[in-house]
Every structure is written in C-alpha cells, then in structure tokens.
Write a structure and sequence with these properties.
One of its GO terms (molecular function) is small RNA 2'-O-methyltransferase activity. This protein has about 475 residues and is α/β, with parallel strands linked by helices. The protein folds into 2 domains: about 200 residues, Hen1, N-terminal domain (c-terminal autoproteolytic domain of nucleoporin nup98); about 200 residues, Vaccinia Virus protein VP39 (Rossmann fold), CATH 3.40.50. It is built from 15 helices and 14 strands. The strands form 2 sheets. It has a 7-stranded antiparallel β-sheet. A 7-stranded mixed β-sheet has the order 10-9-8-11-12-14-13, sandwiched between helices. The longest helix has 24 residues.
C-alpha cells in the first residue's frame, strides 16, 4: 500500500520536522510482515510530499504467524487471509514509522504539532467495505474534504464492475497528529478486517489513538465495533469508557476557568459580586456573549462569522435571533465543530434555520475564501490562544483577506487577574493562553492593526469594572 502526505504550509519542508524523517533521505523500516519505506517525491518551500510505501513479504507473514496445529488442513500455514488485510498491516506500519508524529511531538519546532496545516492525504488503493459513501461518512465529520473513487476490477473489462478498493484523497486543514490518527484508526475500520488477534489491550489502543475525536464522531459505535472485530466484551468496555470520558469532558468544559462562569473570589472597589441570589450577576461568559450581540446589532451586521466558535455558544444565540440572516461558525477543532452540531441539533432544525447556518472546521491563521462575504467577524476569546508570532497571519486573514465592515475582538484583561484567588502572580486564566494583555497592550495592538488595514477602533468593558484594574474582559470594535 502507498500513502502520500502533501503540505502547502510555508515552509512546506516543515513536514520533515513533524514526521521526523529528513526529506533528503530514503529510509526503510523493517516490519514483522515486510518493509516500510519513507521518501519524499518533492520537497520545496511551497509544497512538500512525503510517501509511505509498505511492501509485504508473504514469507515474513508466515514466520510471524507461528506454529499452526491444523491436522485437517496441512496447508493452513500457507493459506490464510492475513496478506489480504492490507489496511490493517498498513495501519500498524503508520503507527510504527510515525510514532513520534502521532504523539504530536517535535523538539526542533515545538510550535508546529499544535498548528493546523493545509494537508492532502492520498491513498491510491485502499480497501473499503461500503464503497465511497462509507469513506465520506467516516472522514467528513473529522473536517476532511473527501474524494473517493472506486477502483475498477479491470480497466480493460469495464463490465466486470468495481473492486472493493477506493482511490481516496483527503484534503483539509488539520494538525498532522490528528490526520495520522484518523488514518491509523479508520483504515482497518474501512476494511473490516485485522491481520492479528484482537485482545483486551486493543481497547486501550483505540481510545488512546482516537482520544480527541472518537467520542463526538456520529459513527463512533460502528468504528468501535469494527476496530474491535465485533468482540462484544471489548465493545461494551470501550463504549462505557467513551461515555465516561465524554461526561468528564463536558464537566471539565463547564468548570473551565476560560469560560469564567465563577465570579472572582476577591475584588477591589466596585468589583465584589452581589451576595443576594436575586441580585447575582450573570456569568461573565453570558455577559460577554450578550455584549457581542449588542455590538453586532448596533453595527447592523446581519451576516456574521464566529471565528473560533468553540462548541457553538454564540452561534446558538445568533441562530435563535431572527435579526441575523446568516450565521457561520468556524473552529480549528473538528471535535468542537461536531459538538456544536450536536448542541444545535442541526439535523432537527427547520429548513429556514438550516439555510441560515454554516459550520465547518477552519483556522484563523490561514486564508479561506469562505470567510469572505460577511458583515462582521467575531473573535471572542480567540486571540490569546494564538502564538504571538502567528498574530500577523491572523491579522492578514481577518482584516486583510476577509475584510468585513466590522470586527469584534474580546480578550481577557490581564490587570484584572489579581481578583482571581489561586491564580499566581503573572499567571494566566487558562493553560492554553499564549499571553494575556493589559489594557494598554491590547490598545497598542488594536491601534496598529486598525491603522494598517483601514479601520477605526473603540473599546468597551465587559463585566463589572474595578476602579483600579478595569473590567475582566476587554472588547475592541473595529469598523471601516
């Protein structure tokens, strides 16, 4: 089997760092069933392609199988179905050859593993029981654009029809580790067969490899059943553990400081929370969403792109308000997009509401023609999750390429952090924040961006203000 991975990220040769395979070398890796080769058909700054080619050795397969005690079938050692479980063999090779890349590690470029890249994966002959429709159903919920064309049994004899193999191309903007995990898990699922005995440790292997996306996949039961060879005991265990993990993730999201559902434990003058239950303020997250909606309406923005929409909190509010004619939600995490779909119950929405809504994976630091044509772009608690070295790319995408009439940016006010008990001095509200700006730092960034791209900017506080430190959230409203 053959798989090529093509990147157009600049410089595209960063792919070599992520895969831990040098573009100038051809490398071979012995497997118990053959040999896997990694090489680069092309390696330039604008486009780089890595190829993984697996050559199976029937004699190696026989040696790996061990002794066969089959008095009724003397040729059992030589006639078996393992050479035909090509997808399973290939998945094992992917896991072995790209082990470090699958774990999302890159010491030479530590920022790369967490960055979604424009990728194209091509497998010219991959077995799939269920045809092209099955490939679409498995990969599209993960953020891929899928092209799956059946491979004919014999091109010279079209009447023979198609084989069960597909010429499969996956295109999308994802982290390389996620892309590899999709292939590693789903290739054996497409084939419906494995070349080895499925034991209890296979449950751990599945949940570890698909941790970030399987719980939200609409076909997770089918994936789990096929991956575990339909062994009922293992399937029940995996299903129970998936349900427990999803429940824990939901609780963690509800308790996440980034959502700021809890009031500060200590505050300066004017910031103490009301003690009376009737007078208690709404959570900061709710105040923030309400403030954004008020600004959008004041600007007359009826077509809105929520860039970094998460699980769809703001999208849900806009979709429920007839003022907004088109609502687009985009997030770098395909898992978050899937959760947003579930939250909004997209399949059950009335047709008029479904026509107003678009949800798809995407990144704020890569140009996308689908970002254009909106009256406003919202970056609600997004910029602080972007590496400062990548902010220039975000600015070009949002203010230069998409160029809406209005851009609404909210971000934590670092000065207010002194009011959060347990937060160390200089600490940040969330472990994924790359930075948190003071009011002066935010204004410095906003004024520079506004001047460079032809906007003017005004500032609004969100949440109860403290006389010394200001409000917990700061908002910048950019208008043409």
């Amino acid at each position: 089997m053959l798989m090529t991975i093509t990147s157009r990220h600049r410089p595209a040769t960063d792919l070599g760092f992520l895969l831990h395979k040098h573009p100038d070398k051809v490398q071979s890796f012995g497997q118990s069933f053959g040999t896997a080769h990694v090489f680069y058909p092309e390696a330039a700054e604008e486009r780089c392609t890595a190829a993984l080619l697996l050559e199976t050795d029937p004699q190696a397969l026989l040696r790996a199988r061990g002794t066969v005690d089959s008095p009724d079938f003397a040729l059992a050692s030589y006639v078996n179905d393992r050479p035909y479980a090509a997808a399973s063999l290939f998945a094992v090779a992917v896991g072995d050859v790209f082990r470090t890349a699958l774990k999302g590690r890159c010491a030479a470029r530590p920022e790369l593993p967490g960055t979604p890249l424009p990728l194209e994966l091509h497998l010219p002959a991959v077995p799939c029981r269920g045809g092209p429709e099955e490939a679409h159903a498995l990969f599209e919920p993960l953020g891929w654009t899928v092209r799956a064309e059946p491979v004919p049994l014999d091109p010279a004899l079209p009447d023979w029809g198609d084989s069960r193999y597909l010429d499969l191309t996956l295109t999308g903007e994802l982290r390389l580790a996620d892309a590899l995990s999709h292939v590693y898990v789903l290739l054996p699922v497409m084939d419906g067969a494995k070349h080895y005995w499925v034991a209890a440790d296979e449950v751990d292997k599945l949940l570890r490899a698909a941790e970030g996306w399987l719980p939200a996949h609409p076909l997770r039961n089918r994936i789990t059943g096929r991956y575990l060879a339909r062994r009922r005991t293992l399937v029940r265990e995996a299903t129970a553990r998936l349900a427990a993990a999803e429940e824990a993730a939901g609780q963690e999201e509800a308790d996440d400081p980034a959502n700021e559902e809890r009031a500060p434990a200590r505050a300066g003058s004017g910031a103490a929370p009301a003690e009376g239950k009737a007078d208690r303020e709404p959570p900061l997250a709710a105040q923030r969403a309400a403030a954004v909606l008020d600004v959008l309406k004041a600007e007359g923005a009826r077509r809105v792109l929520d860039l970094g929409c998460g699980t769809g909190t703001l999208v849900a509010r806009m979709l429920g308000d007839a003022f907004f004619e088109r609502v687009t939600g985009v997030d770098a995490s395909a898992l978050n997009v899937q959760r947003a779909r579930r939250r909004l119950r997209v399949d059950q929405l009335p047709e008029p509401a479904r026509r107003r809504l678009r949800l798809f994976p995407g990144s704020a630091v890569y140009r996308d023609e689908r970002f254009a044509g909106h009256d406003a772009v919202v970056l609600m608690e997004v910029v602080e999750h972007v590496d400062e070295g990548r902010l220039g790319a975000l600015e070009r995408v949002v203010f230069g390429s998409a160029a809406p009439a209005a851009v609404v940016v909210t971000t934590p006010n670092a000065e207010y952090n002194v009011h959060y008990e347990g937060l160390p001095e200089g600490g940040m509200r969330h472990s994924d924040h790359r930075f948190e700006w003071t009011r002066a730092e935010f204004a410095g960034w906003a004024e520079r961006v506004a001047g460079e791209y032809g906007y003017r900017v005004r500032y609004l506080p969100v949440g109860r203000e403290d006389q010394r430190t200001g409000a917990p959230t700061q908002m910048g409203v950019f208008t043409k």
